Amino acid sequence: MQLAVWTYEGPPHVGAMRVATAMEKLHYVLHAPQGDTYADLLFTMIERRGKRPPVTYTTFEARDLGKDTAQIFQDAAREAVARFKPQAIIVGASCTAELIQDDPAGLSEAMGLPCPVIPLELPSYQRKENWGAAETFYQIVRTLADKSVVREPREGRPARVNILGPTALGFRHRDDLVEIRKILALLGVEVNLVAPLGATPEDITRIGQADFNIVLYPEIADEAARWLEKTFDQPAVRTVPIGVGATRSFIADVAELAGADPTPALGDTSSRMPWWSRSVDSTYLTSKRVFIFGDATHAVAAARIAREELGFEVCGLGCYSREFAREVRAEAARCGIEPLITDDHLAVEDAIAAAAPELVLGTQMERHIAKRLGIPCAVISAPVHVQDFPARHSPQMGFEGANVIFDTWVHPLVMGLEEHLLTMFREDFEFSDEAGASHHAAHSPRKASVQAVSEAPVEDIPAPAMADDDGTLWTVEAERELKKIPFFVRGKARRNTENFAAAEGRRQIDLETLYDAKAHYAR
């Protein structure tokens, strides 16, 4: 384990909590001490859910360690079943409770509870949140699915599908599901069930009635989908419909398995991204360098969109989930770069600084990193904060999701150009900080202060002052000129100039050095 101020994933019991919170009439009995109950805030504060997670904590204290903590767990389980009357419960231990080895699985099995009990063995010190969510969903499906189910013949009825993967605290899962349902309706495909999100344990029993599965989020649903394919002979669509091209491929794959005509769904004309990518305006953003980091599903999709649909150059690509590193490595090879597989945010920050991209696409942490480095950023993947659980409809999947991606990615770069223009004209009287807004007639510009011009002889005027008195390399004039360079390439210009000055043996960077460096690198 590693002590850090930030983690991309929580322990695996948080993943189990995401599945339990997404489902209905399922309860999670978590053997955990006081202090391990923080996860409730993830759902009520960040995701802004209207109800708290269906979790009962044993909340044993330090003084209980000398007593029978196993009895505390059994009492909590009985009270939870009596109070909430769930159709099923899942039981497990937090990373701290795991150390006392009370075995919630064995304890609950011996209790004879009046509902199915699904034990979870989640190794907190070897695995993390997404794996915990996938393992929990797999165990729920494996335990509750009615293996005696026989599918009806396909003749005379529409195809049925299970949509697998959406959970609580997922990045735009709720909104993605709306878009997927729209596509399936256009194809005439019935939804047998969606799970985990909104499903009950009784719903899971009929999961075998579907003709095939759609794996929307492989990190959550891939393991369960493989078991369903083996047990019920259900093929799976694994194309993730993020971006225009992937959405079209997804429609074709679903139509093939459903025996449907894809034309109605492919005829959607709501996406603006293809039009814009063909327009003259898009040439401003062609070959912009972009650094991408997140979970594997969203990172790979983002790299494909950037490369194939927007004409960006992917200069960095990585993910924090080692279980899906193979997919990221394959996409990085197509981009001609080395992948970054790590859960250390400091390594990610170093990689971004070294790549000097013009746009960063990542998680909440990459947003902070980009802000510190002065680079535009858009969030594309969990983990995220409250601003990325918008109240409005804001999907990532389908044709409408492509519109949202277009807005989210392109606007930071376009607004960056506007900011650069404002900076260039800052000294102009009309754009000065002293001037009021030009469209507000009541706010007339304040009189600009004019500094008196020195009448001293030229030789008496002091040399350009340093920006600081601590030996800073740049003069004030050079720093002022550097700020006229667009902020999304300013860092690279600074580094190039400093490298040039070091190579030339210049101890100070003034205007002449800045211009000489510009000419040197322009050759």
What does this structure look like?
This protein is an alpha/beta fold. The protein folds into 4 domains: 12-129, Rossmann fold (3-Layer(aba) Sandwich), CATH 3.40.50; 160-266, 3-Layer(aba) Sandwich (Rossmann fold), CATH 3.40.50; 273-421, Rossmann fold (3-Layer(aba) Sandwich), CATH 3.40.50; 464-522, Proto-chlorophyllide reductase 57 kD subunit B (Helicase, Ruva Protein, domain 3, Orthogonal Bundle), CATH 1.10.8.550. The chain has 19 helices and 13 strands. The chain has a 5-stranded parallel beta sheet, with helices on both faces. It has a 4-stranded parallel beta sheet with strand order 2-1-3-4, sandwiched between helices. A 4-stranded parallel beta sheet has the order 6-5-7-8, sandwiched between helices. α6 packs across α16 and α18 crosses α19 (511-522). The longest helix is centred in the C-terminal third of the chain and has 27 residues, at 398-424. The chain is globular.
Main sheet overview: 5 strands, parallel
Mean pLDDT: 85
Strand segment tally: 13
Strand content: 5-15%
The dominant shape is globular
CATH superfamily of the largest domain: Nitrogenase molybdenum iron protein domain
> In what order do the strands lie side by side in the largest sheet?
11-10-9-12-13
CATH structural class of the largest domain: Alpha Beta
**CATH topology term of the largest domain:** Rossmann fold
Q: CA-to-CA gap between the ends?
A: 49 Å
Q: What would you report as the Rg, rounded to the nearest angstrom?
A: 28 Å
